[in-house]
Amino acid sequence: MPSEINMDYRILWDNNIVLDLFLLRTNENLYIREIENIFVENRIPIFLSSSQLHNIKFILSKHLKKSNIPVSANDILDKFLKTHIVKVLKTPSYIDITRWANNIDMEDELIHLTAKAFDVYVLTRNEKFLKVLGNRGIHPRDLKSFLEKNRRFRIPMLDLKAETLYQYSDIEKGIDNVMKKCNFILGDEVRQLEERIADYVGTKYAVGVSSGTDALVLSLRALAIQRKKKEFFDKEDLIITTPFTFTATGEAILRAGATPLFVDIDIDTYNIDPEQIERAVKKYGKRVKGIIPVHLYGQPCNMDEIMRIANENDLFVVEDCAQSFGAKWDGKQMGSFGNAGCFSFFPSKPLGGFGDGGMVTTGDENLYEILLMLRKHGGKDKYNVDHIGYNARLDTIQAAVLLAKIEYIDEFTERRRKIAEFYTKNLKGINWLKIPYVQDKAYHVFHQYTVRILDKDRDEIQKKLKEKGIASMVYYPVPLWKMKVFQNNGMEMFGGLKNSEIASKSVLSLPIEPLFNERELFLILKVLKQIG
Amino acid sequence: MKLFIEVNSNKLAKKILTILSLFQDEGIKVREIIDEVEEKSSDLTAEKEFRNGKETKLEVKERTEFLRFLHKVYEGRENISKLSDEEALEDALRDKYGL
């Protein structure tokens, strides 16, 4: 079942609580066994500020020595770390240093500062400190009622705060390195991330860019330069894509000078229908230059068929992998099939940064070289350029964050897949919604768990979920062919695009946070069953 | 109406109660049951037996692995030190800096 760590509660233990446990001080803290049991049984992490570590060890050693206990502090700490989830938080440097010269308890001051910086509560039995902490403090006798009162009954789509805290130390280390070196533009971390992602996806090259949208624009521009020997595509050049996607996919085609040719989706997978692609290519002939399949919600498109059609008709393929990092088709990573794979590191994405970022993967050396130029104003030498380029580099600091987060990607993907499995198993009995269909060859990463509402008003269902505190989202409410930007700037439509319209009116994405625990999932389930 | 479900582990009992607790607003008084379960499976289980009219402690079982470890290394004792944390820290610092 989902998370082995309960990130609903973020509580830092003051030194006195840690030592109460280590020394079994039941005279001073009646509740210490119960406290420990609550944290262990509910898999709640124990947060500590880095400033606490040395004093706790010092004090513990002395207590043991004075009491002639034949066990070392190291043994106790070692066992503690092996049997609890302990997360260390950085003690901020932005303390008001003048307070150092005041008559205050510096130890408490630093713990308080850490708690404020990370928005965590402090468990302490020090009455004076509790007064300073105000609402942020919890006395051991109040822990149970605190947990009861603070149970999460509002379920968000994602909990980026919990994810960030979960991965904090690794991210902090990466950011500190960049701050130390101040190599903010195309620093070592960008190259390291490119190598790491090329290796992960299984392509020879990867180019870090400023967003997923720019990854698409630069790829298309590079293909125009490579295949047409022109800076941009011509208006009559058609690029096939799905109308059921985020605007960026279609927008990138327009920005590269071509015209999007919208082809309908398969209503079961919500991905572009290869049969329709083949028929569109037959109809429009040589005007069609390429295909952009979007692996929507994390489910791969049928790449066997798409690559066959592309190869038979000399079309390029640019995969839109914005939602599909880690997804595979027949065991092969998405982003490794086409001429280029375009990834987004938008914060909510499977691999999300601390802002915008993107990556293009490719096995084509020539395309790679053009991409390198385009992201840096259009030339190998930025003071003497060859092409109409962009200022579209991936920031070093984003690369550092992503290098830390990529170490968690497989664990988080597995968590998402388990949550999806839970939903699928438990939603089967609800006849007014259609659970996602997963193709046999697809390794779906469930960036979104999207159902389709049948015979009911989708917006009404969403409203009812919201009233009960459950977030949900509609990706996407308007198919691209209905948007003014495409109607006014050029598009072609193949067929009626009926499925894209049906999907836009009926899909609903449910919360899928990798760190959700069992209780939260049962709550979503209960509400869904109630409102139907 | 009361519903009795017999299960063979605390873990399973807790799982069922977690699910039931979601229905508290529909009049199911789960809180009371949880308190009862927690009471019964209290932190320390001391099994006692009378032998020849004398009470003999047979087994003391702590609930968590860490507490069992402490129980073993402290040989069942609690409140290990008489020192205050301030005194212990002062002593430790004195040792470290040779004061």
In brief:
The complex is a heterodimer of chains A (532) and B (99). Chain A is an alpha/beta fold and 532 residues long. Chain A contains 21 helices and 19 strands.
Summarize the structure in words:
- The complex is a heterodimer of chains A (532) and B (99).
- Chain A is of the alpha/beta class.
- Chain A contains 21 helices and 19 strands.
- Chain A has helices spanning 15-22, 32-41, 53-66, 73-83, 106-118, 127-133, 143-149, 160-166, 168-181, 188-201, 212-228, 247-255, 274-284, 303-312, 365-374, 396-405, 409-427, 458-467, 484-489, 498-506, 518-531; strands at 11-13, 46-49, 86-89, 121-123, 137-138, 205-209, 238-241, 259-262, 288-292, 316-320, 328-329, 332-333, 340-344, 358-362, 433-434, 442-443, 449-453, 492-493, 507-510.
- In chain A, the strands form 4 sheets. An 8-stranded mixed beta sheet of chain A has the order 6-14-13-10-9-7-8-18, with helices on both faces.
- The longest helix of chain A has 19 residues, at 409-427.
- The radius of gyration of chain A is 27 Å and the shape is globular.
- The two termini of chain A are 25 Å apart.
- With 99 residues, chain B is of the alpha+beta class.
- Chain B has a two-stranded antiparallel sheet with strand order 1-2.
- In chain B, strand 1 and strand 2 form a beta hairpin.
- In chain B, helix 1 (10-21) packs antiparallel against helix 2.
- The N and C termini of chain B lie far apart (70 Å).
- Mean pLDDT of chain B is 69; it is low at 38-50.
- Chains A and B meet through helix 1, helix 2, helix 3, helix 4 and helix 21 of A and helix 1, helix 3 and helix 4 of B.
